[in-house]
TrEMBL record:
It is found in: Membrane. The chain crosses the membrane at residues 6-25, 45-64, 76-93, 133-163. This is Protein-S-isoprenylcysteine O-methyltransferase Ste14. Its main location: membrane. Keywords: Membrane, Transmembrane, Transmembrane helix. It comes from the Bacteria. The keyword Transcription does not apply. It holds the Pfam family ICMT. It is a multi-pass membrane protein.
Amino acid sequence: MSIAAIGKALWVLGVVAWYLIRRPYERRAKRVQIVSHRRSLSEKVGLAAALIGLGIVPGFHVATGIPQAADYPARAWAVAIGAIAFVGAMWVFRRTHKALGRNWSITLEIRDRHELVSNGPYAFVRHPMYTSFLLMGIGQAFLLSNWVGGLAGLVGFAILFFLRVNEEERMMMETFGPQYRAYMEKTKRIIPYIY
């Protein structure tokens, strides 16, 4: 098996792991009443960009090899870095879902008896789910030796992040007020101690 094929196989395994982590929380979330939400066009565009960049474009490349003109030689060290980043992404992703519990949702929603979560990965950053998506994008860039398929994840993440994070923080401020402001002062957005 070539190094490029190993990178593609590891990417597929990472996406399967992502789905297996997400699915039970998605099913449970349907049973908890939504009190308010911020579904908007910009949020839909951000979620679509993340799906396209972290799923559809790389999946199409892995399945077909297209666009072959954007391929470059795969390197074992790059695949190793990509695998480490993807494992880190799945670890953060799992811990984030576990910490959120019944508060989790795919869209910007406040649920019945919603609580401000500040434990687990939330003790370090306000948006660890975005941290996991950033790590997935980095992992994808190293695992897939194709400029389009590899970098699509970082583009998708960036669009999601910049279209959604400010609105998410506004919603949390309106819901939790001074408690969320104090939490913001203690934590960074997605990279501990940096940003």
